[in-house]
């Protein structure tokens, strides 16, 4: 397992290289000039030229890319708009995004897996049809629209939860109140997809011979479902959750914007509007590292779920 972990971490190098090249190319192909965006349209040509020289924007593209990469990994990359170290700025916002993602994942897993199991056990029942209809709705609706609906229902009509803002960390009461709506909005797609996959994985396992054998031996239905069936259906469910984490990061950009959440996603959006190329570069690279590490942890969990899996 150690060798496998080292190999996966080494693959992070070409991945970051590809992501950095792609992000840099998109930034340079986008219309607008960072110096003009910083100084405004009324700035003189001399002031714009000085700003471009200050931030090395007058250099050839390959030199700008190399300097940006060197500065990022040395921790010296500076934001154009915020006038600070990019790594420090992103790390200040990262805990808010991770807390939101953790709560969203927790809500999705707690709700979707039991619903998927019950739908599989009670196939073709009213509960099955109702839960699958809601799951289909959850997969289809955009994240930002879910957030708007939740704000209208719980903040405008019922007035029981705050509509936006950050109230503190997850373990504080006020922080949890502010986090419930964005977490629900972000978890809806994961909840829907996990419910559907749990149901299909359980249906496939329930029809296996060893399940019928366990029932024939008089094993209780609960033990058959939870110990024999669900345990063997966990691998595809875990794979789906790991894959959906990437979509959660993408959805966090929209969710944090809708709910004015001070995370990395909203920071990246503000940096894009302000043409802060170093900050956009740093946000995307850091989130790519977090995503790869989370997927590595998911892969390592496979070994605990199924000891037959070998990493050699």
TrEMBL record:
<keyword id="KW-0472">Membrane</keyword>
<dbReference type="Pfam" id="PF00528">
    <property type="entry name" value="BPD_transp_1"/>
</dbReference>
<feature type="domain" description="ABC transmembrane type-1">
    <location>
        <begin position="94"/>
        <end position="302"/>
    </location>
</feature>
<protein>
    <submittedName>
        <fullName>Peptide/nickel transport system permease protein</fullName>
    </submittedName>
</protein>
<keyword id="KW-1133">Transmembrane helix</keyword>
<keyword id="KW-0813">Transport</keyword>
<feature type="transmembrane region" description="Helical">
    <location>
        <begin position="175"/>
        <end position="193"/>
    </location>
</feature>
<keyword id="KW-0812">Transmembrane</keyword>
<feature type="transmembrane region" description="Helical">
    <location>
        <begin position="133"/>
        <end position="155"/>
    </location>
</feature>
<feature type="transmembrane region" description="Helical">
    <location>
        <begin position="279"/>
        <end position="305"/>
    </location>
</feature>
<keyword id="KW-1003">Cell membrane</keyword>
<dbReference type="InterPro" id="IPR045621">
    <property type="entry name" value="BPD_transp_1_N"/>
</dbReference>
<dbReference type="InterPro" id="IPR000515">
    <property type="entry name" value="MetI-like"/>
</dbReference>
<feature type="transmembrane region" description="Helical">
    <location>
        <begin position="100"/>
        <end position="121"/>
    </location>
</feature>
<dbReference type="GO" id="GO:0055085">
    <property type="term" value="P:transmembrane transport"/>
</dbReference>
<dbReference type="InterPro" id="IPR035906">
    <property type="entry name" value="MetI-like_sf"/>
</dbReference>
<comment type="similarity">
    <text>Belongs to the binding-protein-dependent transport system permease family.</text>
</comment>
<dbReference type="Pfam" id="PF19300">
    <property type="entry name" value="BPD_transp_1_N"/>
</dbReference>
<dbReference type="GO" id="GO:0005886">
    <property type="term" value="C:plasma membrane"/>
</dbReference>
């Amino acid at each position: 397992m150690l060798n496998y972990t080292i190999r996966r971490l080494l693959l992070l190098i070409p991945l970051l290289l590809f992501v950095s090249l792609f992000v840099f190319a998109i930034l340079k192909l986008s219309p607008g000039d960072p110096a003009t965006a910083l100084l405004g349209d009324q700035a003189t040509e001399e002031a714009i030229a000085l700003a471009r020289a200050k931030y090395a924007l007058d250099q050839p593209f390959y030199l700008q890319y190399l300097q940006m990469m060197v500065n990022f990994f040395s921790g010296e990359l500076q934001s154009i708009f915020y006038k600070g170290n990019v790594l420090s700025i992103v790390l200040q916002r990262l805990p808010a995004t991770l807390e939101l993602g953790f709560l969203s994942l927790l809500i999705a897993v707690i709700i979707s897996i039991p619903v998927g199991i019950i739908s599989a056990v009670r196939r073709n029942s009213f509960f099955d049809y109702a839960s699958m209809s809601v799951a289909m709705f959850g997969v289809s609706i955009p994240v930002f629209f879910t957030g708007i609906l939740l704000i209208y229902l719980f903040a405008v009509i019922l007035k029981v939860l705050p509509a936006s803002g950050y109230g503190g960390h997850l373990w504080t009461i006020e922080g949890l109140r502010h986090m419930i709506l964005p977490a629900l909005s972000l978890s809806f797609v994961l909840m829907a997809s996990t419910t559907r996959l749990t149901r299909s994985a359980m249906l496939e396992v329930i029809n296996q011979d060893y399940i019928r054998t366990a029932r024939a031996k008089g094993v209780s239905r609960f033990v058959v479902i939870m110990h024999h069936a669900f345990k063997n259906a966990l691998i595809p469910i875990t794979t789906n959750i790991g894959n959906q984490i990437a979509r959660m990061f993408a959805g966090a950009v929209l969710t944090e914007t809708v709910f004015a959440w001070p995370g990395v996603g909203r920071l990246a959006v503000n940096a894009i509007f302000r043409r802060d190329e170093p900050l956009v570069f740093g946000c995307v690279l850091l989130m790519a590292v977090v995503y790869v590490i989370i997927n590595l942890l998911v892969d390592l969990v496979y070994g605990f779920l199924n000891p037959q899996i070998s990493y050699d």
